[in-house]
Design brief:
Elements: H1 3-12, E1 37-38, E2 44-45, H2 49-54, E3 56-60, H3 62-75, E4 82-93, E5 98-111, E6 114-131, E7 134-144, E8 173-174, E9 178-179, E10 183-186, E11 195-199
Antiparallel strand pairs: 1-2, 3-4, 3-11, 4-5, 5-6, 6-7, 7-8, 9-10, 10-11
């Protein structure tokens, strides 16, 4: 009977992640009008500010995501002794429209003498477009399917395995993306937490 609370905690964490429309993200930060590029004939070609901002490599701020998760669970009245996450998640938005995501996260929750560990491993790629403050991802293919992640430890046999990870680009449509020189903020549909990424390159 003592295993149930830990299952409730980790099942609740499922709603902390996801993909789709953000629920309460602030308005996007626009790049400056000077981000226009030159065309082959020497003319100016407008580059969407969001597209210009997204290009590059981004790493999930795991410390921020962990802090949000802890605050949210405590706010629900769950008697959590400790919550930890190790590993990382990386997003890549290339100038040619290619995008990829790689996730290697391990969640560990402890409460009432029960410790549960759930790994989340995946890798995928697709095509992206950023325009008018919105990010759209299409043609997504999983190279490492998240369903094939290693099994959790510490869960009772009858418990369902929650899908824990960061933000997923699989079929994502995010109409209000927050992006500046150093930070990218994405939030899934109906997800109470936001995923904050920092620029890596």
């Amino acid at each position: 009977m003592r295993a149930l609370p830990a299952v409730v905690v980790l099942s609740t964490l499922v709603v902390l992640t996801g993909c789709g429309s953000p629920t309460s993200a602030p308005s996007p930060t626009r790049a400056s009008p000077g981000d226009a590029a030159g065309g082959s004939d020497g003319s100016s070609v407008d580059v969407d500010p969001l597209s210009a901002c997204l290009e590059g490599t981004w790493q999930l701020d795991t410390a921020d995501f962990l802090a949000q998760s802890q605050e949210y669970l405590v706010g629900l009245g769950i008697p959590l002794d400790s919550l930890d996450v190790e590993g990382g998640q990386q997003l890549v938005f290339a100038a040619d429209g290619f995008t990829s995501q790689s996730t290697d996260l391990t969640w560990t929750a402890s409460m009432m003498g029960q410790t549960v560990t759930i790994p989340s491993e995946s890798a995928g790629e697709g095509a992206w477009n950023g325009a008018d403050g919105a990010l759209t991802v299409t043609d997504w293919v999983w190279n490492v399917d998240p369903a094939d992640a290693p099994p959790p430890s510490g869960l009772p046999p009858e418990a369902e395995v929650p899908d824990l990870g960061g933000f997923s680009l699989d079929g994502a449509t995010v109409p209000d993306v927050v992006c500046d020189d150093e930070t990218l903020v994405l939030q899934g549909a109906d997800a109470p937490l936001r995923a904050v990424f920092v620029r890596f390159g």
